Amino acid sequence: MASDRRPEGSRGGGGGGAGRSKAGSFAESPAGRAAKRVVWAAIIIAALVFAVQGGQYSTLDLFRQSRQERVLTHAVDSLTSLVDSLKRYENRLEHDPALQERIAREQFGMVRGDKELLYRFTDSSAHSAGRSP
Prior knowledge:
Structural class: mainly alpha
Helix content: 55-70%
Distance between the termini: 148 Å
Order of helices and strands: HHHHH
Strand content: under 5%
Largest sheet: none
């Protein structure tokens, strides 16, 4: 039966060695476990950072787009208000005779019928500036 025995350093399943390989001894030591934890923590942190900041649009891009959307919405609201006021003015201009008359008098110098005369006064210093004494 001596032939059934294996040498102590062989690969068999005998209980001759400590049962650990040299490569596994560092991983199972306290320093090895701490190193594994640090590596896994770094991998998880890197994955979280990529999930938040990575990809086509990062979180900062989303904040910038949100701010730009608020600015553009405000601009659209103010322009809508301006368009509404111009439409009201256009409607008044087409249908309000008093406004039409005021614009005709102020902008075009028009008078009403034969009852009114228009006098235009010029500045005498501007008129005489063209002549030499």
